[in-house]
Every structure is written in structure tokens, then in C-alpha cells.
Specification:
alpha/beta; seven-stranded parallel sheet; Rossmann fold; globular
């Protein structure tokens, strides 16, 4: 039986790296993304506006119509980050951030539950962020990433009886277009971030794909409800160093 996994936001960046790695691992990957993938990606794409519940429902209906088989893997990767200090944060940006970073993952998880329960097997990975520990200019983003990590812990408890594991990954600074947009290279704050990474470099999308591959593996069935910070050590205090 084919192992099918949905990865949201897999047209670029971290999502694309995850989808490519899971394909190498033997998963058939379906990418739900508003943006069309570039290149000859070895996975399927369904154009999906993840800010719209009806669009998410239609995407999973299309998956069923394609008769690909049960979906037993889900990586909730898609996200938005609108940088603003508290005084300048807007309701519009807040609502969009919560819709994509929290509501969409919940709806996607609900959409795959029947398949996972029927197969008595499932793997759900949520891409959170090191920012859930606190980061300036990220009121909505940090809140949403803390929220998805907390939701993942709840799901891990509720779904363990069905052979489904749920884990979270908290990336640190990763060299993606999203990071570059939120942290322009010429900003002192960006240089400060890079300078505080203990391993001395930005992460690459493949670093996150490595962690996702581990959590999605069939042999990782005794690991659930965890949040793994893949951050080059930036989530650690450096007192005395």
C-alpha cells in the first residue's frame, strides 16, 4: 500500500525540502499550496488557499477523488509571519496569521483522521518555531506558533490510541525566502540573530526536513507530543559564554 502524506506549503522553502525528503523516504506527497511549485518536483500539487476553510475541504475532496489511497501522514508546514511591534500590530494581520498558522492545521488534521484511524497508523508533524519562546516584532506569529505546539500536544493525547503520533518542530533561523522577507540582511537585528547562533550559521531547509523525516518514520512510534527545536542552539541561554 502506498504511504500518502499531505505537506502544506510545499512549493518553496522548508515545505519543499520536507516534501522532497519524504518522497525519498517512500512517501507519496501531496502539496497543498496557493503557489505553483517550480521545477520538476516529484510530488503532486493541489492549489489551495489555506486561509479559506472551504478551499481546504475541497482540496481533501480532490485527494479522495484521485483515489490515491489513505492519507496517513500530515506535515502542517505552511505559515505566515507579519513582523510588527505591538503598537503597530493590526487585527487584519493577526486574523490572517491565526487562520493559516493555527486554523488550517486543525482543519487538515481533522480531514485525515478517518484514514489514520482506519489504518491504525498516522504521523502528524507541526512546524512551529523557536519564536514561540519569545521574539520581538512577532506578537501574532509567536502566539500562533505557541498555539500550534500546544494543539499538537493535545492531539498526541487524543490520538495515541489510534496509533497516531503528533510532534512539533521549532525551527530557528532558516535561510528561506520567508526569513529573508521578515529579516532583511541589512538590518542590524538580522545580523544580531545570526551572530547569536551557537553553531555559527543559519539553518537550511534540509535541516528541518531531517527532523520531519525522523518524526514521520514508522520506527518513531514511541515518540509523541514532543517539540524539537532545530535551531543551531539559539534557544539555549548563553550565560557565561
Amino acid at each position: 500500500m502506498n504511504r500518502n502524506a499531505v505537506v502544506t506549503g510545499a512549493s518553496n522553502g522548508i515545505g519543499k525540502a520536507i516534501a522532497s525528503r519524504l518522497t525519498e523516504d517512500g512517501w507519496r506527497v501531496i502539496n497543498l499550496d496557493r503557489a505553483e511549485p517550480s521545477g520538476d518536483d516529484p510530488f503532486e500539487w493541489i492549489e489551495t488557499d489555506l486561509s479559506e476553510p472551504d478551499a481546504i475541504a475541497a482540496a481533501f475532496e480532490e485527494i479522495r477523488e484521485r483515489e490515491l489511497g489513505p492519507v496517513t501522514g500530515l506535515v502542517n508546514n505552511a505559515g505566515v509571519a507579519r513582523a510588527a511591534i505591538l503598537e503597530e500590530s493590526t487585527v487584519e494581520d493577526f486574523d490572517l496569521t491565526m487562520a493559516i498558522n493555527m486554523r488550517a492545521p486543525m482543519l487538515c488534521a481533522q480531514a485525515v483522521l478517518d484514514d489514520m484511524k482506519a489504518e491504525n497508523f498516522g504521523r502528524i508533524v507541526n512546524i512551529a518555531s523557536r519564536a514561540l519562546l519569545g521574539k520581538t516584532h512577532r506578537t501574532a506569529y509567536s502566539g500562533s506558533k505557541g498555539g500550534i505546539a500546544s494543539m499538537g500536544r493535545v492531539w498526541a493525547l487524543e490520538l495515541a490510541q489510534y496509533g497516531v503520533t503528533v510532534n512539533n518542530i521549532g525551527p530557528g533561523p532558516i535561510a528561506t525566502e520567508l526569513f529573508k522577507q521578515a529579516n532583511p540582511p541589512n538590518m542590524p537585528r538580522t545580523q544580531e540573530i545570526i551572530g547569536t547562533i551557537p553553531v555559527g550559521r543559519l539553518g537550511e531547509p534540509e535541516d528541518i526536513a531531517q527532523a520531519a523525516s525522523f518524526f514521520m518514520d514508522e520506527k518513531s512510534g514511541f515518540i509523541s507530543g514532543q517539540t524539537l527545536f532545530v535551531c543551531g542552539g539559539i534557544s539555549l541561554a548563553r550565560g557565561g559564554s
